[in-house]
Amino acid sequence: FAQQAPFKIGLILPMTGQQATTGRQIEAAAKLWMAQNGDTVAGRKVQLIVKDDTSLPDVTRRVAQELIVNDKVDVVAGFGITPSALAVAPIATQSKTPLVVMAAATSSITEASPYVVRTSFTLPQAAVAMGDWAPKNNIKTVVTLVTDYGPGIDAEKFFNDRFLFNGGKVLEKLRVPLRNPDFAPFLQKVRDLKPDALFVFVPSGAGAAVMKQFGERGMDKAGIRLIGTGDVTDDDQLNDMGDVALGVVTSHHYSTAHNSPANKKYVEAFMKANNKLRPNFMSVGGYDGMRVIYEALKKTGGKGGGDALLAAMKGQIFESPRGPVFIDAQTRDIVQNIYLRKVEKKDGQLWNVEFDVIKDVKDPGKTK
Length: 368
Ligand code: DHB
Hints:
Shape: globular
Bound molecules: 3,4-dihydroxybenzoic acid
Strand content: 25-35%
Number of strands: 15
Structural class: alpha/beta
Distance between the termini: 54 Å
């Protein structure tokens, strides 16, 4: 009587290189989920296989192929940056393997394969709220500074369109490379242009460098405000950014300071299990991604199967540490609250303190 094979989740993450904080956060969250919920679902043993793609899409593709063909994983998940998710989408389609995007956030990723399900966010989802908030708060002129690839281009477009619609003026749109960016010459240009605010999107892990150089150039003192999506005040780094970050307003789907019993429980357990590391928005994408996979496996009675799992992932509704969320059955993208937050110091630590919310935001990138 042969024992049933374990249900395998291939978790592909940047564990080294420029995006390593994303990998560290998501791996920790996935392990926390399993520690809290066990490694057996509907009688079936669950096995997590973590692989480092160093955030290079060619490596992501090779690793995904090995996981699917050799290890026979039931699901691939993770995907720290957009190019990594896009590299694997055709393989997911071909092999009918659900691909759970826990980090990458370019709107179009869910359209690259019908097997993609997303538990992170999209940049249009986050950026539109800032395009509404800024003009109502004495910000009439802006320079945008984004990392030059999918999510940055999404952030730039959706912020700009909304900001212009609301009567704002964009003085200049600047783009910095993803690999080894040097923000200095771009920030000098912004200082010369003297906008009311600089709108920034940089991926998780790059925010501290922007903040440091923004402060060193005295741009805050020169009266230029810093705004952006919450990637720039990433909770993984925020507490070390110093006073230059105080007062920075961003829009995003998750703050470690989110005030709910579910989040307090999550933050406490995460920090306890990870030597006091603060969970950031990437971690929550990983934690919720594990929930979506577990619930889907449960619904199939432990049987799994690509199409059955995918069907069971669509339409899931649950309370995340970030607030209420659901997986839109049509788009397979996450619908969630977007919060406006301001960096404040409390008990000697820096936090993204939420002060307003736009409820149940669907990805605006899908309706255009
Ligand atoms: C992406 C990566 C990030 O680190 C982030 O904060 C947002 C988007 C991406 O590559 O899609």
